[in-house]
Amino acid sequence: VVLTTGAATSTANYVIRMNAAKYVTFDGIDVSNTNSSYGACVDIFGNNRKIKFTNGEFSNAYTGTLSASALFYKSSTATNRFDTLEVSNCTLGSSTNAPYYATYFYGTSSLTTTSNELIFNNNTVYFGYYGVYSFYIPSGEYIGNTVIQSGTYSIGYGLRMYGSSAWTNASDWVVASNSVSMISGGYGIQTGYSNASSSSPMKIYNN
Questions:
Q1: Contact (CB, 8 A) for 59 and 95
Q2: Quick check: helix, strand or coil at residue 111?
Q3: d(C-alpha 200, C-alpha 181), whole Å
Q4: Using an 8 Å Cβ cutoff, are 71 and 42 in contact?
Q5: What does the pLDDT look like over 85-96, one tens digit per residue?
Q6: pTM surpassing 0.85?
Q7: Which of 2, 93, 129, 200 has a CA 20 to 30 Å removed from the CA of 72?
């Protein structure tokens, strides 16, 4: 099954929008956005819970740098949330079409409005500048992914996790067994303001 559209606009630039959805799994569904001006595949909107994408391929025709045209996109608007979002056993982009942002997940600095947990495992990701981008996402796991920079830009970020200096012992992340290839340079794994603790540390190993 392939879901595709070329009719995206600046305000409706997605193939799939998850709007206050709960307990939904997409299994074996490929998603392609063929619009060259706006290119999101999945847009996270509203208060979602237990959303899963598995065994799919995600691609777009967009070659610009807009974060809203990432293959997976969640804006910083506080009401746009996911209790748990899982992306597993998927391919994002391709060796001939690597988006500037493969993913863009942006929470909020207040934990009262950020209950997001991102599970991103066993995927193959092709990207230009940002591979898996998470900002103000307090917990999750990146395990067993293959992340490949295209070389289009002179620097980039493979796996990025960025928290808030206002958080106290909020970060609960596991980053393990990933292969990150930075062809033109940059940061394979970057974390900032993790604010983990000795009793609950951020775990990064075997990458």
A1: no
A2: helix
A3: 29
A4: yes
A5: 999 999 999 999
A6: yes
A7: 200
